[in-house]
Amino acid sequence: VHLVESGGGSVQAGGSLSLSCAASGFSSFRDHCLGWFRQAPGKEREGLGSINSYGGTLVSDSLKGRIVISNNNAKNTLDLQMSSLEPEDTAMYYCAAGTSFGCVGTLSATKYEYWGQGTQVTVSS
Fold this sequence. Notes:
This protein is mostly beta strands. The protein has strands spanning 2-6, 9-12, 17-24, 33-39, 46-52, 57-59, 67-72, 77-82, 91-98, 114-115, 119-124. A hairpin with a 4-residue loop joins strand 5 and strand 6.
């Protein structure tokens, strides 16, 4: 499983961002999930949202209305769009893959075995 994130950078507060995760090697697993997570300095890794092999989409309750997660099947990417950014959204953003049924319906980082290197997002006020 190979995951590569792109699209991070610096954004002004109130703006939006689009991240993309090029994912490969996971589709052979009957049960699988692709998800977005973030981790700010000194904080635990936080699940943002995921899409699973059963067609289900899960979004963090705290971010509903601000994020959209989607599959781009033509490009084999998992895309994240986030709006109304705040300085508190500054973090390293990661793409992750889970390859067992345990990842379905959860944003627990422990259920995702494969991780990309991450892309930094910095929101300035």
